[in-house]
Amino acid sequence: MKAWQIVSDGGVDALNLADVATPEPGPGEVRVKIAASSINFRDLMTIKDPKARNLPYPRIPNSDGAGTITAVGAGVTKLKVGDRVASCFFQDWPAGPCSVDVMNSALGGALDGVLAEEVVLKAGGVIPVPAHFSLEQAATLPCAALTAWHALAEVAAVKAGETVLLLGTGGVSIFALQFAKIMGARVILTSSSDEKLERARAMGADETVNYRSTPDWQDAVLDLTGGVGADTTVEVGGAGTLARSIAATRVGGSIGLIGVLTGGEINPTLIMRKSLKVQGIYVGSSKMFADMNAAISLHRLEPVIDQTFAFDDAKSAYRAMEAAGHFGKIVITA
Ligand SMILES: NC(=O)c1ccc[n+]([C@@H]2O[C@H](COP(=O)([O-])OP(=O)(O)OC[C@H]3O[C@@H](n4cnc5c(N)ncnc54)[C@H](OP(=O)(O)O)[C@@H]3O)[C@@H](O)[C@H]2O)c1
């Protein structure tokens, strides 16, 4: 079978499509025929800079996959051949708080990922796919969607009528838009593109701000909230946007610290003065994934897939993410 591998620090161009043995599931494991894999900014960063993450070579990239179980190992009772499942980003985070052991079980990082025709995963490291989803749609859920869910449902516990601030229109933020709307929140969303802002409004974003034409977008958010600020901010920008996100979040509000898209320096004083809750978020547990899928199924949400690439053309998918023209998710199909 075929698998894409990171074999050097040569970036996307150096990704290697290898012929490897089809893996056999051991006790407590299942083998999944991958139908689709979605990519995340983190996968691109991992391919571009595997040394910073101490990756051994070869390493199969990507955390997010969905497919059909083709074999079950000894002791697996709750899953069977033919079940449609998605991978859990962390193979070892059933529930509860994050830990070092959890972090050592990340697909496409500490462990081989899912950009292969077949993969072996822990039985507890897969989740049934929402019934109304295609496998291509299900492949969008493990990282971006779950991170957005964790920020809004677990950390912020958003209440109807609250204001949620979202940055950009990538995978995490577009899922966050969908979740915030089913939670009854008012959404303010920023983007570099007026066209993307229009698409976000069509999906339910209540107010939008172009962060390129309005570089002081935090002031626009304050204007839109009567000078108060958003109750919750889903921070995907990182150090380069955090100061503005802090300014745009209300006193006593919360910021889910998620992204590393931009660099810069942070002055923590305002976090203290505004009594903000700033919580680092690292994807989420299998329990959170199951809770999220229940909400997705109830509301029949559909992920936004911007572009789909064939398995053999995986390099083009990463290049598309690098170009940042996408809205929502980029998917590679088998
Ligand atoms: N901690 C975690 O568990 C976790 C999980 C998932 C993702 N992440 C991180 O979250 C970030 C987003 O991930 P993703 O997969 O959603 O990436 P993505 O799909 O590539 O989305 C990136 C989008 O962010 C927007 N953006 C870029 N620079 C911005 C800026 N200065 N201000 C506001 N928005 C900006 C752009 O939107 P426009 O084109 O609309 O301007 C861009 O399309 C990445 O840093 C990723 O590593 C972390």
Structure description:
The longest helix is centred in the middle third of the chain and has 15 residues, at 141-155. Strand 14 (305-310), helix 11 and strand 15 (329-333) form a beta-alpha-beta unit. This protein has 334 residues and is an alpha/beta fold. The chain has helices spanning 41-48, 100-103, 135-138, 141-155, 171-182, 194-202, 217-224, 239-248, 269-273, 286-299, 314-323, and strands at residues 2-5, 16-19, 29-39, 64-72, 84-87, 118-122, 126-128, 163-167, 186-191, 207-210, 230-235, 249-257, 277-280, 305-310, 329-333. It has 2 domains: 2-140 and 303-333, Medium-chain alcohol dehydrogenases, catalytic domain (Quinone Oxidoreductase, Chain A, domain 1); 145-280, Rossmann fold, CATH 3.40.50. The strands form 3 sheets. Strands 3, 4, 5, 6, 7, 14 and 15 form a 7-stranded mixed β-sheet that branches. Strands 10-9-8-11-12-13 form a 6-stranded parallel β-sheet, with helices on both faces. Residues 40-42, 143-144, 147, 167-172, 190-193, 196, 211, 236-237, 240-241, 258-262, 281-283, 321, 324 line the site of NADP nicotinamide-adenine-dinucleotide phosphate.
Topology overview:
Elements (H helix, E strand, L loop, with lengths): L1 E4 L10 E4 L9 E11 L1 H8 L15 E9 L11 E4 L12 H4 L14 E5 L3 E3 L6 H4 L2 H15 L7 E5 L3 H12 L3 E6 L2 H9 L4 E4 L6 H8 L5 E6 L3 H10 E9 L11 H5 L3 E4 L5 H14 L5 E6 L3 H10 L5 E5 L1
Parallel strand pairs: 8-9, 8-11, 9-10, 11-12, 12-13, 14-15
Antiparallel strand pairs: 1-2, 3-4, 3-6, 3-15, 4-5, 5-7
Helix pairs in contact: 4-5, 7-8
The structure holds NADP nicotinamide-adenine-dinucleotide phosphate.
NADP nicotinamide-adenine-dinucleotide phosphate (NAP) binds next to helix 1, helix 4, helix 5, strand 9 and helix 8.
